[in-house]
């Protein structure tokens, strides 16, 4: 016996073509066996050795480039420990090739095997091998009996070996079936995970109309469930990346993956896989990837160095497509060597995610444009506050969060020819362009009805009701109208009329808060005429009058009274706070903007 090196040069042995059959190799892999002992197959080897009285017996499985022995008895060292040999030492490869038993009383006499290195290195002289098959009849290897001297195999011995080979084949088939069942189970789990992922993606993308937030949430959803790291790329007008969101499963790699994403924005070469996806809109799958792929795809050598640290062994990239198939960007997923390679199922999942992401990006873009137009329209309807010597005025308008529609909230303030100041606030029902148009009509009616007239505010509100009815305007609104007279004796006389609007508040100098409550009166625009009343109070120097819409106090989880009490508590001791700061403080206190909010503050000086 030697260590496996031939004493004299022999002609090379060309492996039979049958060894490379892909279907046979898949079945061999599905057994889950390798060059390690397996008790079930060692038992078959012992039975062959005992029943046929041979020194060596093997369960030999043959791949494209070796044979390995999950079951073995009597192998000399070093082969006993290795449990495998190269094909130069394989008789069993010929059983795979001819697909029938191979029986050799003295191998040295047969041209097919007489130059095989197993004769010298393993002492193989007499050989009997029976095919081991899967359910489709593909030969995976051989159950063989070996003697180190010539031997005339008897019919009984060959029959026994064939019976044992049939039983051994059954065990192999069970292993394949078990592996198939486990693989099916894995696929079911993966399919369930993908469904959960897609549901999570939909929920993530529907949760915000801010595209930057949506992309970061999407990346966090896919990593690590679908990939080790990912890049979400959006393109600009030139078709090249303008924004890249990058995430890695290992927080310690955050700086590396962010730097990779930064370089990707400007460093894609014409051979870049991402660039190809952005250009063609077709997905790409790289089941096997290397740093060479990164090097070819970039003009920044640093990217390959970073990719080496991040890990790259498999990748895929899919388009983010908007309406009409327009390519808006790409999603690139990458796995390292420790993770399963991407396959067609992963690609289909990623394509679906790209489609959903495209819808979200398109909706976000449309939302941004519409919201900008709406806000410009809304603010164009808000008046410029008058400059009054004895009064300081400040106002704010804030739309509801994440909503495009313009609203019906409004405020107004203007000086009368006689020195009085009229201030008003109101809220037209609805949150759409019709509500905004109605709000503009109502504000103009208030101005036209009140300017230059000395009538009480109650009378002005009654006239306003009549104008709405007479002009048949479809208006239903709450409003508060206030007249503030010039300062006399250190105070301003204040009269007000309230049509179903939240009560105005007064913060007195010294910090006390009063609510201008009155008997409730109906909304403006109701079909039946109603008599409006005027109420009065006064403003001394340092007092602040606050008018506001219900967005400042109304919440789904509490009553209006609770909201009023909370607002009054927040206003306490704010009499010395600059008026602009007071307005900003009140808006900042709104935790969830469920409705538009307008407020108008007037302070006597």
Automatic annotation (TrEMBL):
Matches recorded under SMART domains: GAF, PP2C_SIG
InterPro entries: Bact_Sigma-Reg, GAF, GAF-like_dom_sf, PPM-type-like_dom_sf, PPM-type_phosphatase-like_dom
Pfam families: GAF, SpoIIE
Alphabetical list of Gene3D superfamilies matching this protein: 3.30.450.40, PPM-type phosphatase domain
SUPFAM superfamilies: GAF domain-like, PP2C-like
Signal peptide boundaries: none
Residue intervals of the PPM-type phosphatase domain: 388-604
Keywords carried by this UniProt record: Hydrolase
An example molecular function term from Gene Ontology annotations: phosphatase activity
Domain GAF: 36-182, 210-371
Superkingdom in the source lineage: Bacteria
Name of the protein this chain belongs to: Serine phosphatase RsbU (Regulator of sigma subunit)
